[in-house]
Amino acid sequence: MTAPIDHGATAQDRLYADACTAHAPAIARLARAIERDADRARDLEQDIHLALWRSLAAFDGRCALGTWVYRVAHNAAATHAARGARSAKLVTLEEAGDLPASTNPEFEAGEAQTLARIRALIAALEPADRGVMLLYLEGLEARVIAEITGLSSTNVAVKVHRIKAMLARHFAQGDPA
């Protein structure tokens, strides 16, 4: 979802257009990671965009625009989940993004099995830990994740380290997810 740029646009509108240009795909992935149902995911994505546009009236530049976007998206998704999305099924990581296709069926089958195990392990995490891990998988640094979630950088780093260690243990032991 990209916002058209209007010459009479306000600063808020310009910030929103910049935020959409840079972060709309990540917002869409977050919505699909929270909601399995495509319609509910689109609704959540629209809710995030609306919350983002409204919040930009208060944006003062004390943090990076990207940090602001992720913080608003994280909070809107948490509010959405608390409002009754408890009964909705979670979306797998594979469904949350398009994965590159392989030309080797054996490799593809092994990769699918590995991804299924990872998805199941991440889906079993507490919501706060799952949120931290999804932000980590988006490539964000612990410092940025801390700003978004309100946790300390150290706490984020410890959570990521522990989750990665748990994944490694399950894979080393050959445990199914």
Task: Give an overview in words.
One of its GO terms (biological process) is DNA-templated transcription initiation. This is Sigma-70 family RNA polymerase sigma factor. Belongs to the sigma-70 factor family. ECF subfamily. Residues 22-86 form the RNA polymerase sigma-70 region domain. It comes from Sphingomonas suaedae. With 177 residues, the chain is mainly α. It has two domains: 1-91, Rna Polymerase Sigma Factor, Chain: A, CATH 1.10.1740; 103-177, Arc Repressor Mutant, subunit A (Orthogonal Bundle). Helices cover 69% and strands 0% of the residues. The chain has helices at residues 11-34, 38-55, 65-82, 93-96, 105-123, 127-137, 142-149, 153-173. α1 (11-34) crosses α3 (65-82). The chain is globular and about 55 Å long. The two termini are 35 Å apart.
From the structure provided, what is the oligomeric state, counting identical versus distinct chains?
single chain
Series of H and E elements: HHHHHHHH
Largest sheet: none
Low-confidence stretches: none
CATH topology name of the largest domain: Rna Polymerase Sigma Factor, Chain: A
Q: What Rg, in angstroms, do the CA atoms define?
A: 18 Å
- How many domains is the backbone divided into? 2
Cα shape? globular
| Mean pLDDT figure | 80
Distance between the termini: 35 Å
Instruction: Please indicate the percent range of residues in DSSP E strands (runs of 2 or more).
Output: under 5%
Main structural class: mainly alpha
**How many β-strand runs?**
0
